[in-house]
Design a protein that fits this description.
Blueprint lengths: L11 E5 L2 E5 L6 E4 H9 L5 H11 L18 E5 L6 E6 L4 E4 L3 H10 L2 H18 L1 H12 L7 H22 L5
Antiparallel strand pairs: 1-2, 2-3, 3-6, 4-5, 5-6
Helix pairs in contact: 1-3, 2-3
């Protein structure tokens, strides 16, 4: 059992966005593997309202003190957490690849990612594709339109391929060409 690096109470296992992580029952902080942090930030299962409620309930500000890793007890590094409008840090143990997020910070990180234009555009494309696939007539019309598109090579790719071939030929013939003194 691991203890909270802030409160020193036993951390409790929790399923968060379908992944197993540890949560402190007192400060609401989360301990998880760094790879899971990136996965969780991008999982859109929780609604924005749920994430906002979680952030408001658990957020007490960024903990400025240096923390020790609950697994190996080494000092954790503070790394910036990309949340616009906040100066937050995630505590990271490079030896164990664990990350500690203070209460509410995990929800704030998800909110920041889900509020980005790239995420919204991707979600809209997924919604449109699902709507197209749900309507057989619309899907058939789409497939027919795609089949009519010309199969011309991308001029950028074709130009790069020709330039690459020219460079290889120049290298080969430059090496094979006899030199004059």
């Amino acid at each position: 059992m691991r203890n909270c690096p802030v409160c020193n109470v036993p951390l409790e296992p929790e399923a968060y966005e379908g992944l197993r992580i540890l949560r402190c029952p007192q400060c609401q902080g989360h301990l998880l593997e760094r790879a899971r942090l990136e996965a969780i930030r991008r999982i859109p299962e929780k609604s924005l309202a749920e994430l906002e409620a979680e952030a408001q309930a658990g957020f007490q500000g960024d903990n400025p003190q240096g923390l020790r890793c609950p697994r190996c007890h080494r000092a954790m590094d503070k790394r910036p957490l990309a949340v616009p409008g906040f100066n937050l840090h995630v505590d990271v143990c490079c030896a164990c690849s664990l990350a500690w997020l203070d209460g509410g910070e995990l929800a704030l990180a998800q909110l920041a990612h889900q509020g980005s234009p790239k995420f919204r555009d991707t979600r809209e494309q997924m919604r449109r594709a699902a709507a197209r696939d749900a309507d057989p007539a619309r899907k058939a019309a789409f497939d027919a339109a795609v089949a009519k598109l010309p199969e011309t090579p991308n001029p950028v790719v074709a130009g790069a391929g020709a330039a690459f071939c020219d460079a290889i030929l120049q290298i080969v013939f430059g090496v094979l060409r006899p030199t004059r003194l």
